[in-house]
Amino acid sequence: MRTEIQQIVEGLREVGYVADQPIATAVHLALALEKPLLVEGAAGVGKTEIAKALSKWLDAELIRLQCYEGLDLPTAVYEWNYQKQLLRIRLQENGVDHETLEATIFGPEFLLERPLLRAIRSDEPPVLLIDEIDRADEEFEAFLLELLSDFQISIPELGTLQAKNRPVIVLTSNGTRELSDALRRRCLYLWIDYPDPGKELAILNLRLPGIVATRAAEAVQLSQRLRGERLSKPPGVAETIDFAAALDTLDDGALVPETARAALGTLIKDAQDLAQLTGQRLEEILAPRDDLEGETPTK
Length: 299
Known about the structure:
By secondary structure, the chain is of the alpha/beta class.
């Protein structure tokens, strides 16, 4: 098993994702047990990237359903091709009884596939990403239970459609509302926290391979320190990457408060948080400290 987990670590790194052992173990179990994987954590810690990296590593199609309040079945699962049905009715309306006509127009060829139905009807097993499930309504969450437990979808006019090939299902949640116990029981669970300095450096160097080592260290240090502040929206890893790239664009010297302020919009995305970091506070945060605990930045 250790060999398989290590292969996952190495495989995901090859496609640009730095996975530690807990992440690789969760992915290994999801693949081996054919169970959906529910990934929770703060915004920007790399939850969605797991599914993207998996699809690249497995060479599988990524099918993404972005959840939001009011998400309904026609958007997420299927709807009927009404224009095509109407055309068939007009062509067959003479001499065809009602029951025969109804059976004719409610067939698979009249379905318009949306992400969930497309995932279970795929000829090759895809990676299905159900992103930010906590933003969807509880009614939609309840609908998902059949898919998550039995890999099937029930359509009243057609019956139950089983998955041709079981998709790899990854659900993400930012915790904006509590998910039901029924959904949680159907999934394996993974919590992702903000990375430690060493892991964040590794991610940054992997995503920006040409960045100077000291620049990467400066970006990671500031992100790590800002997460210790009382901010409403702490910077995620994606913001650290943007900040490092901005520093490279703005100045090639050591990080000073003026440069940090100029690039702060890549790290901070909230007006009150920006106001909190004005003046002397940002200089205090930037003051030299040994945040990386002996980690030596590498190019």
